[in-house]
Design goal:
The complex is a heterodimer of chains A (113) and B (111). Chain A has 113 residues and is mainly β. Helix content of chain A is 0%, strand content 55%. The chains are: A mainly beta (113), B mainly beta (111). Chain A binds chain B through residues 2, 30, 32, 34, 40-44, 47, 55, 87, 89, 91, 99-106, and chain B through 33, 35, 42-45, 48, 55-56, 58, 90, 97-105.
């Protein structure tokens, strides 16, 4: 089942902060975050694993609440380059969602000067 | 190192035809996943292959199929194309359910 992201869209000015949420109805093994700029492929931002391990490539922080099956991506001091569509992807911990990285519908982030 | 390569990048087909898309993963990556991206549906999981075996399949009709070769290269095939199959088809490779590296995609237009 597809995770639900909120908000669907957010508009910021440079330097402002934003939080993007991802919620699942299934028990999760891990949560992935990706950013896709218009006309480009999605690019990896972060993985959050059950048990607390995190792996990321950028100065972007995120949290993973295993009990609530929720994750949040924190974008602080936003830059113009942060603009794009953010997707969370979830690997289920079992059942029919096991082994499938299922993506949310995306959150469109626009940063203005 | 070289990224994920997808071919062709663009193609136009008519209803009823079939199409084959190719994906060459990053060297050393044994997992290849395919996604369909449309404006209305976002990124929809098609299937995942690992060491030539389909490990998982999404909720797509049997017209969508794929395979993986011994060198980890993968192909997906769509038979009897419908207008609704028009989309960007993305391939992603990973070591094993880790960070996904996406290709630029194959944009299919069905007329």
């Amino acid at each position: 089942q597809q995770p639900v992201q909120s908000p669907q869209a957010v508009i910021l000015r440079e330097g402002e902060d934003a939080v993007i949420n991802c919620s699942s109805s299934k028990a999760l093994y891990s949560v992935h975050w990706y950013r896709q700029k218009h006309g480009e492929a999605p690019v990896f931002l972060m993985i959050l694993l059950k048990g607390g391990e995190q792996k990321g490539h950028e100065k972007i922080s995120a949290s993973f609440n295993e009990k609530k099956q929720q994750s949040s991506l924190y974008l602080t001091a936003s830059q113009l380059s942060y603009s794009g569509t953010y997707f969370c992807g979830t690997y289920g911990a079992g059942g029919t969602s096991y082994g499938k990285l299922t993506f949310g519908q995306g959150t469109i982030l626009t940063v203005h000067p | 190192k070289a990224g994920v390569t997808q071919t062709p990048r663009y193609l136009i087909k008519t209803r009823g035809q079939q199409v084959t898309l190719s994906c060459s993963p990053i060297s050393g990556h044994r997992s290849v996943s395919w996604y369909q991206q449309t404006p209305g549906q976002g990124l929809q999981f098609l299937f995942e292959y690992f060491s030539e075996t389909q490990r998982n399949k999404g909720n797509f009709p049997g017209r969508f199929s794929g395979r993986q070769f011994s060198n980890s290269r993968s192909e997906m095939n769509v038979s009897t194309l419908e207008l609704g199959d028009s989309a960007l088809y993305l391939c992603a490779s990973s070591l094993d359910r880790g960070e996904l590296f996406f290709g630029e995609g194959s944009r299919l237009t069905v007329l």
